[in-house]
Design goal:
- The structure holds three protein chains of three kinds.
- In chain A, helix 3 crosses helix 6 and helix 7 packs across helix 10.
- Chain A has a single domain, classed as Cytochrome c-like domain (Cytochrome Bc1 Complex, Chain D, domain 2, Orthogonal Bundle), CATH 1.10.760.
- Chain A has ten helices and seven strands.
- Chain B has one domain: Immunoglobulin-like (Sandwich), CATH 2.60.40.
- In chain B, strands 1, 3, 5, 6, 8 and 9 form a six-stranded mixed sheet that branches. Chain B has a three-stranded antiparallel sheet with strand order 2-4-7, with no helix packed on it.
- At the A-B interface, helix 2 and helix 9 of A face strand 3 of B.
C-alpha cells in the first residue's frame, strides 16, 4: 500500500514537473506564409535571395592574393551538398561550436590570408546562402551527442528563459502560441530551416544570428551579438529543434 | 533624484516619439498626378490592375498593370504611372513605352504603407488620360511593425 | 556594377511575344528606416531603368522609393530579328549598371 502510494506520488510528480509544453512535430515557417509569398520563394528567378546565391557563386571563384579560392580547395559549389545540414557543429581546433558563417571566415583567415567578412555583410550572406542552397531539400541534422549536447542544453535553456522589458521567452510565442495571431500575423514555430532568409521586413538577407538579435530587440532585451558563443549555441539548439525539416535556403519570409 | 510624475511622463513621451512619415491625402495624389501628366481630365479606362487581395507585407506587393490597347495609332499607350493613394510619396513609378513596346504591361513589386488603393493613370498617343484603381488590403503584423533596426 | 538577374529566352520564333524578367540587387532605402544605432538611413534608390531591343527603346521606367527593394520588372516584347536586348540601371548617384542578352530569332 505504501509502495503503491509512493509510486503514484512519483508518477504525479513526474507529470507536474514537465515545465515545457510537449513539442509538436516541427513545421517549417513556409507553412505559415500567404500563397503569394510561398510562390515568391518557389520562383527560382524572382526569389530575391537568389541574388545573394549568385553573389556567393562569384565570390566562390574569386581568388585571394595567395591564389586560393573556395573553388581551388572545395571544387564546385555542388560539392557542398550536405554540408549545410550539419552546421553549427563542434570544432576541435576552436574548442567550441562554430556556425557556418564562422567556418567561412576561418577559411578566409587561415587558408586565404584574407580579412573576415563582417557578420550580415552581403559577402558573408552570399557565401552562406550559396552553401546552404546546395543542401536545399535535405533534412537538417546537426550532431546532438558528444560535445554538442551541453551546448544544445544551454541553447534550450536560453530559449525557455523570459527576458527583456516585455518579459517573454522564445517559447512564449513559438511554442505556446503557434498558430495564434499577433494582429495580422500568424505565429510560426520559429524554425530556422530556411536561413539565410530574404525577409520582407528587412528588404534584405538575414542569418540566424541577425534573426536572434532582432527577436531580442522585439522583446526589448539586450541583443545577442551575432557570432557570440550564446548566439551560436542557440542556433545549434534551433537547428536540433527542427531536426528533419528540409532546408529551404534561401527562404522568403515576412 | 526623485522624478516627479510630470517629468516621467514627458521623458516617456520623448522616448516613445518615433517620427512617422505622414500619409498622403487625396489632394496630394491629385497634385502628384497633375505634376506627372499636367492638368488634364481623367476618365475611367480599360486598365487591369492585378494584385493579391491581401498582402502580408507592405514592403513588397506584387502588381501587374496592363492596359487593353492595340498599341497603334491614337490607341497607343505612351506612358503610365502608378500611384499609391496613402503612401507618403504617392508616385511609385513612371513608365514610358518606347517604339519597340507591343504591350502596355508591366509587373513589379510596390511598397504600400497601409491598406489603400493603387491608381494607375495612362496616357494615350492622342493625349487623353485614362485611369483605374484597385484596393489592396495590407496586413500588419505585430512584430513586423517595429522599426527595422536589426 | 550591381548584381543583376535577367531571364530572356535564348531563342524565339519571328513575331513571337516573349517575356522578359529582370531584377537588380539594391536596397531602395526609403529614408524612413533606422539602423541599429538609431540613426536614420538616408534615401538611396535606383532612379532609372531602360530596356532597348535592337537599339530601340522598349520601356523606360523612373523608379521611386515606393518600389520594393531589389527592383523586379517583367514585361514583354515582340521578337522580330536576332540581336541584343540591352538593359541599363542608373542610381541616384549616377552609378550605371548594364547588361545584355542576345536573342536568336528564327
Amino acid at each position: 500500500m505504501r509502495v503503491g502510494a509512493c509510486l503514484l506520488a512519483a508518477v504525479i510528480a513526474g507529470c507536474l514537473s514537465q515545465t515545457s509544453v510537449a513539442q509538436e512535430a516541427p513545421v517549417s515557417g513556409y507553412e505559415f506564409l500567404l500563397p503569394e509569398t510561398k510562390a515568391l520563394q518557389d520562383d527560382d528567378f524572382a526569389n530575391p535571395g537568389m541574388l545573394w546565391v549568385e553573389l556567393g557563386e562569384e565570390l566562390w571563384q574569386k581568388q585571394a592574393a595567395n591564389g586560393t579560392s573556395c573553388q581551388s580547395c572545395h571544387g564546385t559549389p555542388e560539392a557542398m551538398r550536405g554540408v549545410g545540414t550539419r552546421y553549427p557543429q563542434w570544432s576541435e581546433t576552436q574548442g567550441g561550436i562554430v556556425s557556418l558563417e564562422q567556418q567561412i571566415n576561418m577559411c578566409r583567415t587561415e587558408r586565404q590570408q584574407e580579412p573576415v567578412f563582417p557578420y550580415s555583410s552581403d559577402e558573408l550572406n552570399g557565401l552562406t546562402a550559396l552553401v546552404m542552397h546546395q543542401s536545399r531539400g535535405l533534412p537538417m541534422s546537426v550532431a546532438t551527442s558528444g560535445p554538442a549536447a551541453e551546448a544544445i542544453a544551454r541553447g534550450k535553456d536560453y530559449y525557455e528563459t523570459r527576458r527583456g522589458q516585455l518579459n517573454l521567452a522564445c517559447t512564449s510565442c513559438h511554442v505556446q502560441h503557434v498558430g495564434d495571431r499577433l494582429r495580422g500575423e500568424t505565429i510560426s514555430q520559429g524554425q530556422v530551416n530556411g536561413f539565410p532568409i530574404y525577409r520582407q521586413l528587412w528588404q534584405g538577407m538575414g542569418s540566424v544570428g541577425r534573426m536572434i538579435a532582432w527577436c531580442n530587440d522585439a522583446v526589448r532585451a539586450e541583443p545577442l551579438a551575432e557570432g557570440s558563443q550564446m548566439a551560436v549555441e542557440l542556433e545549434l539548439y534551433l537547428r536540433s529543434r527542427g531536426e528533419g525539416l528540409p532546408i529551404e535556403s534561401p527562404a522568403v519570409r515576412r | 533624484m526623485r522624478m516627479n510624475r510630470r517629468d516621467t511622463l514627458l521623458g516617456l513621451a520623448a522616448v516613445l516619439f518615433i517620427p512617422l512619415p505622414a500619409r498622403a491625402t487625396p489632394a496630394d495624389v491629385v497634385e502628384s498626378i497633375a505634376e506627372t501628366f499636367g492638368d488634364r481630365p481623367l476618365r475611367e479606362g480599360a486598365i487591369t490592375l492585378e494584385a493579391p487581395p491581401l498582402a502580408e507585407s507592405g514592403n513588397s506587393v506584387p502588381l501587374t498593370v496592363s492596359v487593353e490597347s492595340a498599341m497603334e495609332g491614337d490607341d497607343r499607350v505612351v506612358r503610365l504611372a502608378l500611384f499609391a493613394e496613402e503612401n507618403p510619396r504617392p508616385k511609385t513609378c513612371d513608365v514610358v513605352f518606347g517604339p519597340a513596346a507591343v504591350e502596355a504591361r508591366l509587373t513589379t513589386n510596390i511598397r504600400l504603407a497601409s491598406t489603400q488603393s493603387v491608381i494607375c493613370v495612362a496616357e494615350m498617343a492622342d493625349g487623353s488620360l485614362i485611369q483605374a484603381r484597385r484596393a489592396i488590403r495590407v496586413v500588419v503584423g505585430a512584430c513586423t511593425t517595429l522599426p527595422g533596426r536589426y | 556594377m550591381r548584381n543583376t538577374r535577367i531571364r530572356v529566352p535564348e531563342t524565339a520564333a519571328s513575331g513571337e511575344i516573349i517575356d522578359i524578367r529582370v531584377m537588380v540587387m539594391h536596397p531602395m532605402d526609403t529614408g524612413f528606416s533606422y539602423n541599429s544605432q538609431g540613426e536614420r538611413i538616408p534615401v538611396n534608390i535606383i532612379t532609372d531603368f531602360t530596356c532597348h531591343y535592337l537599339g530601340e527603346e522598349v520601356v523606360s521606367i523612373t523608379l521611386a522609393p515606393g518600389l520594393s527593394a531589389n527592383p523586379y520588372f517583367a514585361f514583354r516584347l515582340r521578337a522580330t530579328e536576332s540581336g541584343p536586348i540591352d538593359f541599363k540601371w542608373v542610381d541616384q548617384n549616377g552609378e550605371i549598371t548594364t547588361a545584355t542578352r542576345d536573342i536568336d530569332v528564327t
